[in-house]
Amino acid sequence: MPELYGIAYSPWTAKARWALDHHKIPYRYHEHLILFGMPELRWRLRRFCGDVTVPAFTAGNTRIMDSFEIARHVDVTGSGTPLFPEGRLPEVREINRLSEKALDCARAFTIFRILKDDGAQEEALPRFVPRSLRRRLRWMAPIGARYIAREFGVWRKTAAGYEEDYREVLESLRRKLKDSGGAYLLGRFSFADIAAAMAMQGVDPVDHPSLPMGPATRRIWRHPRLSEDYKDLIAWRDGIFARHR
Q1: Residue 29, helix vs strand vs coil
Q2: C-alpha 121: how far from its chain's center?
Q3: How much is the mean pLDDT over the chain?
Q4: If 0-12 CB within 10 Å is exposed, 13-18 middle and 19+ buried, where does residue 178 land?
Q5: What helix, strand, coil percent values describe the chain, rounded to 5?
Q6: Share of residues in the chain with pLDDT > 70 (%)
Q7: Three-class SS of residue 88?
Q8: In Å, how far are 11, 15, 48, 101, 162 from 96, measured between CA atoms?
Q9: Vertex 77, ends 55 and 51: CA angle to 5°?
Q10: The pLDDT of residue 243 is above 80
Q11: Which candidate among 13, 29, 68, 87 keeps its CA 20 to 30 Å from the CA of 56?
């Protein structure tokens, strides 16, 4: 059976899971543990040097480490309406690029905030850590956060710089939705809509079982200023989830 390695609250993982579920592909999901899960992930991917990231998909000899490429793969092997309309790949790729830029900003915001948020640090610990020990062990979460920050170069910009970048993406998505008529970016549901919907996670996280978050984690993912200024995009995102997730 195909297997997917990811992080439950991660919008990158959510993109891949959405594509797999859309195409009704059965798969076994594995929660990846930051730092602790790296040896197993390298073994599963047969990648013993270089970078490894999640989501990671394996099926037989197929091993893919990118949500966009996972979605493209299952668009061919799965059933259901294609998420990559014929002749529209460049447009989907561009919207996914905007989504990735937005999520890079969201990741930076959450790292800045988790270092100062005790509740979010407790929620970030693996599920197997007993509730009675979480307060004492929350010091482990900042270690993981700093590891991610180093891996992705988070410290290269300030929070203000990331907010400016995020706004550029959101303005671009707003224009594209207006030009498309406002329902779907390409006229019908596609991976472009999945990517754009997930770009909103760092603005105001969606309340949906496919992206479980504790209250403190939800707090550090939400950006109050952006959520106030882009209510229209949040409403559009919620509509996409209601109809297709």
Answers
A1: strand
A2: 19
A3: 93
A4: exposed
A5: 60, 5, 35
A6: 97
A7: coil
A8: 12, 10, 28, 9, 18
A9: 25
A10: yes
A11: 87
Identify any residues that bridge with 59 across adjacent strands, giving them in sequence order: 62
Mean pLDDT on 50-54: 76
Closest-CA residue to 95 (of 84, 106, 81): 84
Average pLDDT of the segment spanning 192-202: 98
> How many CA atoms does the CB half-sphere of 128 hold within 13 Å?
4
What is the mean predicted confidence (pLDDT) over 132-155?
Answer: 90
Residues facing residue 58 across a β-bridge: 3, 63
Residue 47: CA atoms inside 13 Å, Cβ hemisphere, count? Answer: 16
Q: Mean of the pLDDT values across residues 110-136? A: 92
Instruction: Please report where in the chains the tokens 């937005």 appear, as a residue.
Output: 102
pLDDT of residue 12: 97
Rounded Cα–Cα distance for residues 226 and 57 (Å):
33
Buried b / exposed e over 217-236, threshold 16 CB at 10 Å, is bbebbbbeebbeebeebbeb
pLDDT of residue 35: 62
Interatomic CA distance for residues 63 and 238, integer angstroms? 32
